[in-house]
Structure formats: structure tokens, C-alpha cells
Write a sequence for this structure.
């Protein structure tokens, strides 16, 4: 998505900080009016945002280990696909975590506050 | 297209399991509504006994929380009883007049406890043992203390009695028959059980007939027996059995005997109505145990997802008593008879009694007391009807002995297991799933099957069974791990090889290593990254830059994550010694940050539980001001050195065990290790510091110090082995440190010391740290060098503002302004 237009046209995008605020292969949390969002930065510098809750036992995903485009929940090691919010591997098909639209523009990170 | 409407009456274990099984087969098939009479989510009723005993909380036994219903699009009507079924219009009518139409209806109304028609049965303080309300009533009564009488010496009655005794009541069980659990146990096992219960504060009256419940001011005061005696009590529990709850079905005109009559497809006399669980009667039997109920649910789910051949053919019932420390198991027929022969084993010292009943070369029944580990294996042999005559000699000693002694035999036992037999107890994986993963799924290695099914992925104790099953299923196609096991699915290399090449090829960063060793994933996985980070850290102290993102959150945040996402904080208490000042600082921190729980740990220190992640640096700042530092209770690291008071105070102490413990802890704290390391120093062989179950332990004796290694007291229990004896404290420290460093250099990640020594061999370790003084000194020196980089208090660093991003959320300016 080209975000420049989206940002100007849609006031729902929120500037949450700089890319470098998030460690590579790591995550940070953002408290939004709609709940806590986990922002992930993968090894290839892609950004993802999910509700900060594992579909299994509501574990805080932002505390997990990020590998590839997935995060391992710190509570019971469910592997959650950052792209879809769905569990991978043996836990596939068991619920999902809502994803949050996220975008990057000029080194700044934006999430959609619409949800 | 509209989905078919499925209505389930009953939100208990049967109803929910049926729904789960259907969703697993075809999640989109039905629009599902579930009615439950209890106003709560679905919970594991068989675990009510541990709740009563205070060993579990209600939250621990919830099976499906509200999110589960929501996520699966199931309409839950909890606390809303169904009043009537209209089979003609295919509608259920619930309390308040709500009508819900169905295409398929499942009755899972369970059962009701039987109440004896005794005079006084309606007095306050008379309860049954069936649901959470009963448990709550019993807990409330137990809190007031006093005496309880339980009528019924069956499974349920005994579990109720044990739970009440655990909660401090004086309990008497009144049983009509002359043997406890007479439907499951023979008299020998019943007798042992009675003894074991007495030791746990439960008295038993056998052959005792209740005649009346006596009351005072509307409350129960005692139970009168036919022999004229009166047992005074403030609580009376009736646990004499259950009766299928078939009222709704009967009223609707469905065929009902004892329970709702169903055929092999779990269908009632109306083709659109099914029944499962305790309310159902199948081939004349109404079951009251969980395993048959789950069997029924599987069949029903097959039927409702158009599996034409699905048929339930009855279950072999097995029973296990849930009383802590009393292992009782029973399955099949145990009252022998014509053509039956018994095999009996007794071990008076251990209080073990086992009896197997053989009939025509097949196993027909088993009663196990004191050691019931092989119960499931016996059930499989019974279920499969396998010929066990050749195993007769070893059968009674259990699966492990039979397989060890029987050569080729074990595969037949695996082959004999049903597809539904559970192989992996931790993750609930059954044989059929593993076989499917191997055949249809094309997973031909243990690793692949583990990744796909989770079988053997948790505690690992079923690994040999899984391997055996794969070998049996795949024959020559099974790629047994001939060499050592790979680190994880990202590589074919084993731990040993990775460690060797890190040194040989001077690999000094994770990306460098992954490139050189041809990792198959871009940045590893949550298994290999922490291992690699440790290996590099150990190999290149002072050179390798620790990768926080390759550490588990506990080691990144230097605190222990809890189930609700908060953390626990355990400050170090050197050798378990503390002071008024430290305790005051801990108390102040608990108050200031409203820390909800403060608990003493097994390692002689204090745990602050429920700390919010954002608060951690400030908590540490306050603790640090009083001189408290990180206890590394969260790390694969040196945890504690537990001590007794030793010669300083104790009249038996032979050496200064406290002083030595503190010295060891001061020298070794901060060191990262392959897995956690717990140590202890006891001041005399009475061993009050329990050094003989630690990774490394020291027992002081008059002539010096015994160095112990390789104990364990967790998943496995193992006493230590004596490595050597030394004369001085300096020697003891050098030896402990040398063992620790050898372990750091050669242990595999997550491998505790006892496993490492089992693999490396105690003799080999002894040769290097005892028999070779130069080698020992070199190990000691390498450890001391590494410690110069490791002994920085991580809490102080973070309390001073370091690594702030780990703890604080991002605070976007716009949102800050909006708040």
C-alpha cells in the first residue's frame, strides 16, 4: 500500500514512533484506545502489528521471540503468523489474533486506529 | 446457503467435547447453539476433586472459556435450562420461553447424584458431590472445621473424603459393602486403600448401613447407623452414585430405560436427536467415566459429519483414583473365575500390590495399587485382545521391564494399541494422529512428526514410544536419527557439532554462524536462537555481543513471566541469608508497587509475584538501594546456593556450610549455563540443605567436603552421585567451579547437569576435574575469566535506565495528547 495518500486522506492513521524504536527481530507495545497493540519488526525489516494477545491463553505476544515472519508466544510457545495472526504448525486452525494495519513512511511507523 | 442448525443441550464435558470433535472435522458445517443449566463456562468435572482438595483452582479446570465459544461462533446459553423438546417441529424450548429450532439435536444432559431417601435428607449441611456449587458448599463447611461424614465408599465418595480431610476436617466414610470401591478393587487392594486413607486422616466404616440423618435447628448434627451408633458431624456428603438425567427425553417421548437409549451411531429413537455422555444408555450400559464419554463423542462427531461407518461399540472402562500419593488403578474384570488365572505381585516395603487376570492367553483385568504407571498399557493390551501368553513372565513388572526383557515383543504392544490410544499425555496426541502424520503427512523423522503433531514435544518421556511407532508404521522409510539429534528443524547439525564448529571456525555472531553452518531458515527459530546465543556467549566471553532478541523474555526482562503477562522478581539472598534491612526493603517495595503476592521460594529466597513489566526498573532501583541484586531466578544460569546454618550455630555442624555456600554463590553468580543450576551446601550428613538432589551439592563431613553432582528433583527425581572428597574449602570451591565450567563448555542447551553427566559419563568427568589437577585449574581459570564479564548486576543496569525499550511501551505523542 502506498501510505502517503492513506495518511493524508484517512485521519485514522496514528504516528506511533520511529522504526528504530523497535528492535530488529523484536517488538514493542503501544497502548491505544482500542487496546494494546504489539508492533513487530522482523529480521528483514518488515513491520507487523497484532493485538497483543495469543489466541491460546492470551499471552503477551510482544514478549515473544520473533523468527521469520512469526512470533513464538512466551507462555506456551505457540507460533503465530505475523501476517495473518493465525497459529502455525501443530496449532494451526485454533483461533486467531486480530491484525492491525501498519505502515511505514520516511522512517516513521503508523498504525490504523480504526480498529 | 444456510448452515444446518445444531443445538446441544448440556454444556458439560460431553456436550462440549462433542462440539469440539465436530469442529475439528468440519468447522463450517453447523451453526451451533449450546444450552447449559450451570451459569458458567464449560469445566473439567473430573477435576473437581483436586479443586475440593485445594490442589487446583476453578480457573485451572476451565476447559473452554468464553472466548472459545465466541471464536468458534457458538451461541452459549449458560444458566438457561431447556424445559421441553418438540420433536415434531424440531424446536427446543428454554426457560423464559426462548425457542430455538434445530436440524440436529444432541442431548448431553449428564446425570444427577443419587440422594438416599433418608429421614433428614433435607437438613442444611447435607450435600452431594457433583458440581462446583457442591464443592463450594463443602469448602465453606470445611473452613468452619469440625467433622464430616461421607456416605459412599466409591470413587467419588473417597475423593470427597480426601478433599475434606485435606481441608482440615475429621472425616469418616460410611460404606455399605465390605470393600472400598468394590466395583473396581479386590479386597487386598481395598484394604491397602483403607490404610492409606487412614494415614491421610480419613476413617472408614465398612458394612455400615445408614438409617437416618439427625439434625439440630435445621442443620445436620449426625448420622445414625443401623447398629445403633451415631456419628456426629457438621457436614454430610452423599456420594452413593449417579443416575442418568433423562427427564427431558422421557417427557418428549424418546425411548428411555435407565438412560436415553441410543444405538451405535449415538442416535435416539428419533433420528434427528442424538445423546452422548452420562445421560445415554448404550447396549444396556450407562457410563459414568470420562473416557467412554469421549469415545462416544468421537463417534457422534463422525456420524454428524457424514462418516457412514462410524459406530460406537462400547468402552473398556478403567478407573484411577485422584487422591494425592495414593496410586490406584483398575480396569476390566478382576474377580477371576472359571478359566481365569491370576498373576499377583506384592512389595510390602513400597506398599505395592498388583494383580492381573488372564483368560485364555489374554489380559482380562488389572488392579494396581501403589504403582499404577502401567495402567494405560494394560488397558491397551485388554482393548486390543492381544495374546500375552508369551509375556506372562514379565507382564506384571510393567511395560518397560517386559520390553527390556522381551526383545522383539514391544513392537507388538505398540501395534496392539488402538488408534485412539494416547501416546503423548502432555499434548494429548493419540496413536492415530502420529500414524497419519507419518503416512498421509509424509513426515518420516521424529523431529518432523514432533513439529507436526506436538507428540513428545513437551516433557519428552514418550519419545521412545513415538520412535517405536514410527518404525512400526514406516518400516524402512523411517529415518531414525542415527547420529545425535539435530538442534532443531532449522539444521541437520547436532548440538555437539555446532559447539565444535563455533570454536574451530571462530564463529562469533548468530548471522555468521547461520551462514557458515547453512541454517535452513532466515533467522532460526525460538528453539535454536537461545541455544546459539548461549554457545557463542560461552565460547567467546568478552567478545561476543549478547543478542537480547535471541533470549527468552525472562532473560531479556530479567524477571519471570507469569500466566497473566506480569512478572515475578526474586532478589538474591546469598546462601539464603538475609537481614532486617533487606526484608524491610522488600516489604516497602511490595507496598509501594502494590505487588499482589509475596512468596518464599524453595531456594531460600523471596519471590515478589505480579509485578507489571513497566514497573520492573523502578522496583529494582528500590531493591538495589538496599543492596539487593538480581537472583537470576528467571535464567538458564546459577540460581541459588542453598545452605544450612552449619558449624556457626548447629550443634551437629562439622564445617561452616553457610560461609562456603555464600562463597560459592559470590563466585558463580551471573554465570550463564546450558540450563538452570541449583546448588546446596549441607553442614553435616543430616543434609538439611538437601544437597543430594541438587545439580551440584556439597556435604560437609568432619574430615572435609564431599562433592556431589547430578541430582535432580523436578520432572525427574534423582539423588546425586559423589564425585570426590576434598580436605579444604578452597579445594571444594575449585572443584565445584571446575565441574560448572566443564558443564558450561560441553553441556547441550537446556540439558541439566544430571543429563549431561549421564551422557558424558561420571568417570569421564571425574578424570577431568578430579584426576587432572592442571585441567581442573584451567577450567577454573576459564570460568574466572568469563565471570569478569558476567558479574554485572542486570537489575542495576536497567534501574539506571538501560534497555528502557524492553520495559516501557512506545508512547506516541498523538495518543498521549488524546488521553
Amino acid at each position: 500500500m502506498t501510505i502517503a495518500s492513506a495518511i493524508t486522506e484517512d485521519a485514522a492513521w496514528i504516528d506511533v514512533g520511529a522504526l528504530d524504536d523497535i528492535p530488529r527481530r523484536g517488538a514493542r507495545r503501544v497502548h491505544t484506545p482500542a487496546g494494546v497493540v504489539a508492533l513487530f519488526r522482523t529480521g528483514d525489516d518488515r513491520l507487523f502489528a497484532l493485538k497483543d494477545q495469543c489466541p491460546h491463553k492470551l499471552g503477551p505476544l510482544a514478549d515473544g521471540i520473533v523468527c521469520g515472519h512469526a512470533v513464538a508466544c512466551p507462555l506456551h510457545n505457540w507460533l503465530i503468523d505475523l501476517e495473518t495472526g493465525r497459529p502455525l504448525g501443530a496449532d494451526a486452525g485454533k483461533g486467531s489474533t486480530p491484525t492491525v494495519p501498519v505502515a511505514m513512511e520516511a522512517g516513521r511507523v503508523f498504525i490504523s486506529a480504526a480498529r | 446457503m444456510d448452515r444446518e442448525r445444531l443445538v446441544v443441550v448440556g454444556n458439560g464435558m460431553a456436550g462440549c467435547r462433542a462440539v469440539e470433535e465436530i469442529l475439528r472435522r468440519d468447522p463450517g458445517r453447523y451453526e451451533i447453539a449450546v444450552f447449559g443449566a450451570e451459569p458458567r463456562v464449560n469445566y473439567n468435572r473430573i477435576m473437581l476433586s483436586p479443586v475440593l482438595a485445594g490442589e487446583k483452582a476453578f480457573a485451572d479446570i476451565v476447559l473452554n472459556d468464553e472466548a472459545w465459544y465466541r471464536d468458534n461462533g457458538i451461541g452459549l446459553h449458560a444458566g438457561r435450562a431447556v424445559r421441553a423438546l418438540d420433536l415434531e417441529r424440531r424446536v427446543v424450548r428454554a426457560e423464559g420461553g426462548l425457542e430455538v429450532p434445530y436440524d440436529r439435536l444432541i442431548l448431553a444432559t449428564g446425570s444427577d447424584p443419587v440422594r438416599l431417601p433418608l429421614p433428614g435428607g433435607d437438613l442444611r449441611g447435607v450435600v452431594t458431590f457433583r458440581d462446583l456449587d457442591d464443592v463450594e458448599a463443602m469448602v465453606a463447611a470445611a473452613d468452619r472445621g469440625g467433622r464430616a461424614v461421607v456416605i459412599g465408599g466409591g470413587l467419588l465418595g473417597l475423593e470427597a473424603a480426601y478433599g475434606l480431610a485435606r481441608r482440615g476436617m475429621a472425616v469418616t466414610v460410611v460404606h455399605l459393602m465390605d470393600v472400598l470401591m468394590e466395583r473396581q478393587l479386590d479386597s487386598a487392594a481395598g484394604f491397602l486403600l483403607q490404610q492409606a486413607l487412614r494415614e491421610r486422616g480419613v476413617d472408614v466404616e465398612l458394612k455400615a448401613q445408614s438409617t437416618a440423618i439427625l439434625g439440630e435447628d435445621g442443620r445436620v448434627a449426625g448420622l445414625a447407623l443401623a447398629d445403633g451408633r451415631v456419628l456426629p458431624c457438621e457436614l454430610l456428603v452423599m456420594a452413593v452414585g449417579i443416575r442418568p438425567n433423562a427427564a427431558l427425553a422421557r417427557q418428549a417421548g424418546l425411548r428411555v430405560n435407565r438412560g436415553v437409549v441410543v444405538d451405535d451411531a449415538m442416535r435416539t429413537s428419533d433420528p434427528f436427536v442424538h445423546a452422548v455422555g452420562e445421560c445415554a444408555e448404550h447396549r444396556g450400559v450407562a457410563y459414568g467415566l470420562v473416557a467412554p464419554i469421549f469415545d462416544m463423542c468421537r463417534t457422534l462427531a463422525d456420524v454428524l459429519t457424514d462418516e457412514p461407518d462410524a459406530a460406537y461399540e462400547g468402552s473398556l472402562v478403567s478407573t484411577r483414583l485422584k487422591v494425592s500419593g495414593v496410586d490406584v488403578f483398575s480396569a476390566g474384570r478382576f474377580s477371576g473365575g472359571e478359566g481365569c488365572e491370576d498373576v499377583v505381585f506384592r512389595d510390602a516395603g513400597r506398599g505395592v500390590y498388583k494383580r492381573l487376570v488372564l483368560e485364555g492367553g489374554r489380559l482380562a483385568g488389572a488392579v494396581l495399587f501403589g504403582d499404577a504407571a502401567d495402567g494405560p498399557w494394560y488397558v491397551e493390551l485388554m482393548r486390543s485382545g492381544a495374546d500375552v501368553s508369551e509375556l506372562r513372565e514379565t507382564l506384571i513388572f510393567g511395560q518397560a521391564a517386559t520390553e527390556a526383557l522381551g526383545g522383539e515383543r514391544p513392537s507388538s504392544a505398540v501395534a496392539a494399541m488402538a488408534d485412539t490410544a494416547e501416546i503423548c499425555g502432555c499434548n494429548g496426541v493419540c496413536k492415530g494422529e502420529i500414524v497419519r502424520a507419518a503416512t498421509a503427512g509424509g513426515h518420516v523423522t521424529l523431529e518432523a512428526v514432533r513439529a507436526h503433531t506436538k507428540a513428545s514435544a513437551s516433557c519428552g518421556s514418550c519419545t521412545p514410544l513415538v520412535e517405536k511407532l514410527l518404525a512400526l508404521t514406516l518400516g524402512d522409510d523411517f529415518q531414525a536419527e542415527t547420529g545425535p539429534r539435530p538442534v532443531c528443524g532449522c539444521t541437520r547439525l547436532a548440538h555437539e557439532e555446532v559447539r565444535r564448529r563455533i570454536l574451530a571456525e571462530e564463529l562469533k555472531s548468530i548471522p555468521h554462524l547461520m551462514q557458515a553452518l547453512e541454517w535452513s531458515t532466515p533467522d532460526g527459530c525460538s528453539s535454536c536462537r537461545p541455544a546459539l546465543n548461549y554457545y557463542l556467549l560461552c565460547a567467546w566471553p568478552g567478545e561476543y555481543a549478547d543478542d537480547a532478541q535471541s533470549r527468552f523474555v525472562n532473560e531479556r526482562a530479567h524477571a519471570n513471566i507469569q500466566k497473566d503477562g506480569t512478572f515475578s522478581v526474586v532478589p538474591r539472598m546469598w546462601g539464603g541469608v538475609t537481614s532486617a534491612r533487606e526484608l524491610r526493603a522488600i516489604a516497602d517495595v511490595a507496598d509501594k508497587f502494590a505487588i499482589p503476592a509475596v512468596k518464599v521460594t524453595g531456594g531460600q529466597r523471596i519471590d515478589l509475584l505480579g509485578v507489571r513489566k513497566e514497573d520492573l526498573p523502578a522496583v529494582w532501583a528500590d531493591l538495589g538501594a538496599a543492596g539487593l541484586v538480581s537472583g537470576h531466578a528467571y535464567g538458564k544460569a546459577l540460581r541459588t546456593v542453598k545452605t544450612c546454618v552449619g558449624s556457626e550455630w548447629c550443634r551437629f555442624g562439622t564445617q561452616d556450610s553457610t560461609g562456603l555456600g555464600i562463597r560459592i554463590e559470590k563466585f558463580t553468580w551471573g554465570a550463564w549455563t546450558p540450563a538452570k543450576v541449583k546448588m546446596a551446601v549441607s553442614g553435616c550428613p543430616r543434609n538439611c540443605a538437601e544437597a543430594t538432589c541438587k545439580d551440584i551439592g556439597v556435604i560437609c563431613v568432619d574430615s572435609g567436603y564431599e562433592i556431589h553432582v547430578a541430582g535432580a528433583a523436578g520432572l525427574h527425581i534423582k539423588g546425586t552421585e559423589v564425585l570426590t572428597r576434598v580436605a579444604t574449602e578452597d579445594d571444594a570451591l575449585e572443584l565445584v567451579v571446575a565441574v560448572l565450567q566443564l558443564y558450561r563448555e560441553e553441556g547441550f542447551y537446556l540439558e541439566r547437569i544430571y543429563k549431561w553427566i549421564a551422557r558424558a559419563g561420571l568417570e569421564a568427568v571425574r578424570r577431568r576435574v578430579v584426576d587432572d589437577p592442571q585441567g581442573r585449574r584451567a577450567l577454573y581459570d576459564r570460568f574466572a575469566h568469563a565471570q569478569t564479564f558476567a558479574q554485572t548486576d542486570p537489575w542495576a543496569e536497567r534501574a539506571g535506565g538501560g534497555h528502557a525499550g524492553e520495559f516501557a511501551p512506545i508512547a506516541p505523542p498523538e495518543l498521549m495528547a488524546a488521553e
Chain B has six domains: 4-112+244-304, 126-240, 327-405, 419-474, 495-551, 638-790. The mean pLDDT of chain B is 89. Chain B has 31 helices and 40 strands.
